[in-house]
C-alpha cells in the first residue's frame, strides 16, 4: 500500500508576512490591512521593527505609487493595532506598563520619527499622483453633485494615512517630547492645509489637536513661539465649520497655556476675531449636526481666553456694540460680559467711557428685552471688574449713580424704571457699588415717599425700591443668571466628520488636561456675599422701609409693588426680624380674602408659597388661621342673595389660597386635619331646604377639590409624606359616602350631602389619587377591608357617624335588589379598585371572570351616568389587568353571551342596548390597550352595527371612546397594562375598514346613500381628535374626501373634528413644503413624492371655504365650539396656502365673516374673537412680490 503524501510544511511568520505585503503592494485599490499580516502582528510572531525592515525596499522605491502603498501599509498597522484609548496625559502618573508589547517604547519612537520624516515624502507622492490622475481623468465640473467628489483625493491616501498614524502614536504615553517636536516641525515645514479638501485638513487639525492636548508643555519648552507661528500658518483661511470646531478648541488652549508676545497676541486676534460674529446657518438635515450655537460658543471661548487679546479686541467689540444689531449685538454683549473679567481692570479702565455710554444706551433706550438683559449682565461684569475689592468706589460708579438719581427725581417718568435697573446692576456687581447705589436710591426715594403730594407717585417709588431689593436678594442668593443667560461653555456634543478613516465613531477635540502654570486668568463667579459681609447696607433705612411697605400693603393703589418689594426683602437673610415679617405678612394675608384684589391675589399666593419654604412657621401662625377661620362648619341659608354670594366668594378665595399654600409637609398635615373635620361636620348635618343642601354640596366639593389639588401637586413634586396619607385618608373619605348611603336607606328626611352623585364622584377621584401612591403591598392591605365591604357589606374600618349602630347596617350594593342609595355609593369604592396595581387580585377570591360576571348586570342596570361610568371603568380594569391572555374560555363565553343577549337582540330595550354597547366598547378598549388578540374581534362586532339603524350612530361614537386617551382609567399611573404602539395598531385596523365601508356603503331600498355613509363619517370624526399625527399624515389622501363630507354632516362633533384636522393638515403641509424647498430639487430618476398635505388642501380649497363658512354660521348643528373650529381652520388656510390659490376667494371670505349674525357679528364673544383673527389673516394676505 502506497504511503500517503505528507502535507506541505507550514510557512514561517516571515513568509506569511512577505506574501501579504507583496499582495498589498501589488493592489492599486485602497485595500484594508491584510488579515494574515494583522494576525502575525497580534500574535507577536512579527515585530514592528521586523515589518519595517521587510518594507525597506518598498519604502524607498523610485515608483511613487509603490512607495505610497508601502507607507500606507505601515500607517494602517499603527491606526488599527495601536491602543485606541488614550494613555494618561502629560504630567500624570503612569508609564509604558499599560501599552501592549507590540508598541513598546523603542518601536513607537522609531515609528514616530519615521512618519515625521516621511511627511515631506507623503506630500510629494500626493502631488505627483494627483497630477498623473488629473492628466488621465476627465475634469469634474464645479456644478457636479457632491457625491462625485472624493473625500480624500486620489494620490493623497498615503498622506492621510500618515497623519492618522501620527495622531494615534502621539496619543500614547511613550510618545516623547523630542518626537512631538519633530512631528510639529515637519508638519509646519511640509504640509499646507489650504491645498487640500476638508477631510484632509481635518486630519491635519486632528494631529495638531492631539499634540497640543498631550504634549503642550514640551512644545512650549522646545519650540515656544515657533510652534504658535507654525500653527497660525496652518489654520489661516479655514472656513469649514467641521474643522473650525477643532481650530477653536486648539486656539483656546494655546491662548490660555502659552506665553506670547504682543505681536503674537495680535496675530491670534486676527486669526480668531475674523470669524466674529458667526453667521453660519446649518442646512436642513445636516448630517454632521453642527449648530450655530456650537460654533458661537466655541468661538466665544477663544475670544475671551487671554488678556493678550484685550488691546485689539476691546476697540473692535465697542465698535460692534455701537454699529451692530440683532443677534450680532447680543453676541457682542455676551463676549464683553465674559471677556471683561479676563482682560482685567486695566483694559476696563482704558475703555470705561465708551463702554458705559454704549451700555447706557442699550438699557435706557432698549429696543427689546433680550438686548436689555444682555446689556445688564455686561454692566454687572464691567462694574465687578472695576470695583470688586475697591473701597471706596471712585470714578465711574459715582457718576453713574448721580446720573440715575437725576432721572429718578421724577419717579413716574418713562426712563425712571431703566435708571433703577442700572442701579440694580451696581447692586449685583460688588459690595462697594451696592452700598453706593442703595444709599443714594433709598435716601432719595423714601424722602419722596414721605413728602409726596400726589399719592399716585408712590406706586412707581415702590417699584423702583423693589427693583433694587430684588437685585440685592439675587446677589445674596448667588443668582448670576437673571433673564435668559446663554451658557458659557459649548455643549458637549459629539460631531462626526467625513474623514478617510474607516471608523464611523464620532470625533471630538481631545480633552485637555489641567497642567501647566501659565494659564491665563479665567472669568470666575463673584465671591459669596451676605448682608453682614456687605456691612448691612439697608440698616439706615430700616424703619422707613418697613413703614412704607406696611402702608403699601394696606393700600388699594400700590399694594402690588409693595408686595413684590416685601417678598424680595423677606429673602434677604439677616435684615427683617421675626416680628417685622409677622407684621408685614399680616398685610399680605388681608389681600388673600379681599373682595377687590384679583390682580394682586395671585402674586401674593406665589410669594407666600415661596416664603413658606424658609419661614413656614410664620404662615402656620398668621396665614393659615385666617384662612381656616373663613371655612364654616356648614353653609347656612340667610335668604339674602347678595350676602350669600359674598360669603361664597370669600370661601372660594380661602380654599384657593389653601390649595396653593399648604404643600409643605407640616402645613399639609394641618390642612388635612382641618379639611377632614369640616367634611365630617358638613356631611353629618341634615338639610331640609333644597337651597341650603345645594350650598353645602358645593362646599363639600370645594373641600374635596382643594384636598385633591394638593395631593396632585405633592405627587408631582415627589413628597415623601404622601404614603402615610394614602393609607389613612381613604377610609376617612369613604366613610362619608358609606354613612350617607346607610342614612339615606334608613329613611333620612332628606338626601345626605355625601350621597349626592357629584360628591361621590369627587370622593372617588380623591381616593383614586391616593391609592395610586401606595405600593402593591400596601394596596393589598387596603383591599383586605375594601373587598369584604363591596361583596358582603362588612363595615371594616369605616365609621357611620353618630346616630347609627353597626348592627343596623346592611350595605349590599351589588345585590339585584340593592337600594338605590347603596348603588349610588358604589362608584366611590370602585374608584379605589380602578387604581390598583395589576398584581393585586380582584374581588371574589381573585376570580376575575366571576367579578366581571357580577359587574356586567350591575352596570347594565345603572340608574345614572355616574353609575354606568364607574361600572365601565371597573370592567375595563378587570379585563385589562386580571384576565389572562389569551382570553380564558369562561371570559370569552361571558362576552359572547353578553353580546348576543344585550346588544345583538333587536327586541331588547333600546336604552339598555345603548348602555350595553358602551360597556362593550370599554372592554374592547381595555383589551386593545394591552394588544389582546380578542380585541380585533370585538371591534369587528362594533363595525357590524353600522348597518343597524338603532345603534349605528352609537357604535360610530363608540370607536371614539375606544380611541380616547384622556379617560384617566387605563393609564400606567393606575397600574394598567399599556403596550407600546397600541394606538397605531388600533388605527391601522379600524381606519381601512371605515374608508372601505364608506366607499362601499349600500343604502336600504328607498333610503338615501348619504344616511348610510354618514355613519362612517361620524366614526371617522370620532377618531380624528385622538389620531396620532403620523397616522393622519400617512392616511390623509384617503381621508380628505371624507373630511369634506363630514363638514356637511348634521353632527356638531363631526364638523368640529373635520375642521380641526384640515387646519392641522394645512399647517403641517406648509412646513413640509418649506423643508422640501430648502432640501433642494429631487435628483433625476429618484421616485417622486406623493401629494403633500398642502397639495390636497389647495386642490379642494374652494369647497373647503364654502363649507367652512357654512359651519361658521350659527345653527342647531353648529354650536359655538364648532364655529370656533371652523374659523380657526379658515385662519390656518390663510396662513398656509399660497396667495395665488387664495386670492380668488379673498372677497368671499371677508364678506362671509362680516355677514349679519356670522363671524365678527356672532352672538358669542369667544366666536367673535376667533372671527377677528380669521378676518385679519385674510386681510393681510400678500403675494410673493408684495412680500419682497
From TrEMBL:
Q: Where is the composition biased (Low complexity)?
A: 503-528
Question: Sorted alphabetically, which SUPFAM superfamilies does this protein's record hold?
Answer: ARM repeat
User: What does this protein do, in the record's words?
Assistant: Key component of the cytosolic iron-sulfur protein assembly (CIA) complex, a multiprotein complex that mediates the incorporation of iron-sulfur cluster into apoproteins specifically involved in DNA metabolism and genomic integrity. In the CIA complex, MMS19 acts as an adapter between early-acting CIA components and a subset of cellular target iron-sulfur proteins.
Q: Which InterPro entries match?
A: ARM-like (IPR011989), ARM-type_fold (IPR016024), MMS19 (IPR039920), MMS19_C (IPR024687), MMS19_N (IPR029240)
Q: Does the keyword Chloroplast apply?
A: no
Q: What is this protein called?
A: MMS19 nucleotide excision repair protein
Query: Which ranges carry the MMS19 N-terminal domain?
Result: 159-365
Localization in the cell: Nucleus
- UniProt GO BP: DNA repair; iron-sulfur cluster assembly; protein maturation
